[in-house]
Amino acid sequence: MSSSPVEFSIAQGKGRDPFRDRQPPYSEDAEQAVISAMMLDSDAVLRATEFVDDSMFHREAHRRIIRAILALAERGDVIDPLTLSEELSRRGDLQGAGGKDYISELLDMVPTAANVEYHAKIVREKALRRRLIEVSTGIVGDA
Q1: CB–CB of 66/35 below 8 Å?
Q2: Which of 66, 81, 103, 117 has the maximum number of C-beta atoms within 10 A of its C-beta?
Q3: By C-alpha distance, which of 133, 139, 138, 128 is closest to 53?
Q4: pTM of the model
Q5: 28 domain residue, yes or no
Q6: In a domain? residue 23
Q7: Can you give the CATH number for the domain in which 72 is found?
Q8: pLDDT digits (tens, 9 = 90+) for 93-123
Q9: How many domains does the chain have?
Q10: If DSSP codes are grouped into helix, strand and coil, which group holds residue 113?
Q11: How far apart are CA 30 and CA 113, in angstroms?
C-alpha cells in the first residue's frame, strides 16, 4: 500500500465545475399542482401545509404565491385567482409572482385537489434534496 495522498477529482478538466449547468432538483408541475389545488379547495391549504411551507418551493414566484394564499387562509378569505391576485398586488408581489395571467393559468393545472398531499410530498422531497446538496457543497468547500 502506498502512503502517498490520494487525489480526488470530480471534474473532467481542471477548474471546470461539473455542477455549473445543472438545475437543482425541483418539480415545476408539483409546485403548480399544489398551488392550483389550494385555489380549488380551501381544505387543500391545510392538507398541503402539513407537508410543505413556502420555503420549500423552488421558484420565488411560487413562494410569493404560497405566502399570499396562507395570508388569505389565515384571514378566512376566499382563495381564487381574483382574491389571490388582489392579495399579491396589495403586497407588491403580483408581477414577481407572474402576474394575473399566470395566476389564472395555475388554476387549471389540476382538475381536483384530491392529490394535493401527494404533490406536496413531491415538493418537500425536492426541497430536502436541494438542502442536502447545499449542505454537502458547503462541507466539500470547507474541506
Answers
A1: yes
A2: 66
A3: 128
A4: 0.82
A5: no
A6: no
A7: 1.10.860.10
A8: 999 999 999 999 999 999 999 999 999 999 9
A9: 1
A10: coil
A11: 12
